[in-house]
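Input chain follows. Return structure tokens only.
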Amino acid sequence: MRRESITRLVVRAPNWIGDAVMCEPAIRGLRSLFPHAELTVLAKAVVADMFIGYPGVDHILRYEDKGIHAGLAGKWTLAGTLRRKRFDLAVLFQNAFEAAFLTWLADIPRRYGYATDGRAIFLTDPVAVPDPGLMTHQVGYYWNMLRLLGLSGEAPTPALTLLSDEERAMGDRLASAGIESDDILIGINPGSTYGGAKRWLPERFAETARKVVGQLGEHAGTRAAVVILGAKGEEQLGRDIAAKVETRSMVLSGSTTIRELMAVTKRCRVLLTNDTGPMHIAAAYGVPVVAVFGPTDWRTTSPYGQSEAVVREPVDCAPCLLRECPIDHRCMTGVSVERVFGVAMKQLEGVSGSFGSSGLCNARERGANKTNETNQINQTHLLEGYTIFLDRDGTLNRDPGYIRSPEQFELFPGVPQAMAKVKQAGARCIMVTNQSGIARGFLSIGDLDAIHAKLERLLGEAGVSLDAIYFCPHHPDDACGCRKPNTGLIDRAVRERQVDLARSYVIGDHVRDIELAKSVGARSILVTTGVVRPEQVESLIASGTVPDGIAPSFAEAMDWLLEDAKHRCAQESGSP
């Protein structure tokens, strides 16, 4: 297939929420293979709404299988719609016979997908189904389907996009129930549309949440609340659990759209859940998950990128993949509250900044271990002469993929305030960012300028600004000298801004940011809000790519930096 000949392509997304989330990295990969093509997602309504505002999608086409597309006449109507759009290629992530038949009926010349469900006759490019014995995770299953088109490497963690207005609206809704923005929100997703066999006991969900809230209040002095999620028909289940939690709670079961479900899930600090769609939504937003698995296969559908999230009872009959248990439901009754509680606290510990045996001080540990002499150093001019090089996507802001417009750009909470701290201490802040989306045709220089204008406005609202922005617009294959981890962007800053690299820090969410710091002789801080997740830190360290500091958020990275600078200042002044 000559990829440059494809100008319009349609993607048939999976039908289930969880599958659609696990398919997202493959859609992102497909976008990278066909950067100049118009990409349309064809999906059922709920899944289609998940891709509103998604940067890799140009158009969304809803498959109204209960409405105008119902029955044989409806299928003919849909095929006619597809035919009129003159697609060059259909990529079918949904495995059903119908998906291939419809695109054949629509006369789409190239039809690409797994040869499942007896549909190979309708595919121009059938892909062999993987050996089920390999137990590939579903994220990899979708990703690997595209390897024959040229996609390589391993699948990244799924990512979803929310609009800032949607997050604000959910914040207001939670506030109406007395849940404030600084409360630690414990999410519970106790239902399952697949069947009762996937459901852990409701009273155990309630008891676990009660213990988590109590532990947080006792040891951290924090305010915590509980939100209960669920589909229509699960309202009473949610109310029953709320009555047993005995703390501030809000029941949203059956009363959220998919966009609202995404917004409230993103707001959670941890989600206690069965194997369901919201579990994958949480993982896509980097929300720590505690997932109780019973009849379904944890090896293929666990929350991607969270190896510590699964709790299960190893019984001989699991995974049986049955909707209802024909015996005594031992796979679920064998999972105790104490086990789920233990994993929940460990997941919350990762959010709050403890990385256990990593051997590196995180922001809070480093602050706690400083000597009294160091802590007494005046912070007002502490960072005079220092330069902080900041990555953008995944460090300052959420990274849903290629950000094409200001509407898709949203800072992580607390970033402007944290930057104000180091600016007040005398530091210069320079952003250095790879923006290959320009070379790929996803956005123009003008689009990037508009995005950065929004960034400056958001920072300006906190009385802070960047001292400079340097970006690399080139494609990774261009072999330029400015794409990180190459040093071109920082070399330019040294020339134009008289930077002292011995008094510099590089902060980013990617291995290449750490490599860049080492190349120029700066100190490095890895934030685990983007590409590298908290659970991947140990393997990163084992690979030899060791940052000077690790922090679970940009705000705590700035705290680490200030404490590190105090320590260096104390050493230079001869303090013990």
